[in-house]
Amino acid sequence: MKPFKIYLDTSVVLMYDDHSQRGIITKEFFKEVSKNNHQLVISEIVNTEITDNKAKRESNLSFLSTINYKLLPYSDESYYLAWTYVFGGVLTHNHLDDLLHIAYATIFECDVIVSWNRKHIAKPIKIQKINVCNLKNNYKMIAIYTPEEFLIYFK
Fold first, then answer.
1. Alpha carbon of 107 to those of 4, 23, 52, 74, 128: distances in Å?
2. What pTM did the predictor assign?
3. CA dihedral 70, 74, 76, 82 (to 10 degrees)
4. Residues 7-51 pLDDT 10s
5. Beta strands 5-8 and 39-42: pairing type?
6. How far apart are alpha carbons 123 and 125 in whole angstroms?
7. Class of 5-154 per CATH?
8. Domains in the chain: boundaries
9. Which residues fall within 8 angstroms of residue 21, CB to CB, at 6 or more apart?
10. Which tens digit of pLDDT belongs to each residue from 100-129?
């Protein structure tokens, strides 16, 4: 299998040290990514959200320092696309950070977004609306999976 360029949203990083079933799956996801040489990418939105999470800041920043990922550069185009999603009815402006994750992944041509956020990102109706906006604006469609779905489909 050809390695994927995977955009990680903050929820995946936050779940790494969790003791729940999601935490166990997240650890397995990172093992699989490493084993198959998938390229992980994040945006400054991930760093900001981790830094703002006082309860888990140290452990998550520490975890990020142990994995190989690429930090995407700031992109005005990503902000423009995120607002296009707002006007396209994907989510309201109150969820701009969630839309920025998607926009960065789209602009930087990631193969897939991996997210535990089933309410705003990894939800079929949202994915459909995102891809309608992407196609209308001459961007490629983007695949979005939870870590669990990624393991099921690509392991």
1. 16, 29, 25, 11, 17
2. 0.94
3. 60
4. 999 999 999 988 999 999 999 999 999 999 999 999 999 989 988
5. parallel
6. 6
7. alpha beta
8. 5-154
9. none
10. 999 999 999 999 999 999 999 999 999 999
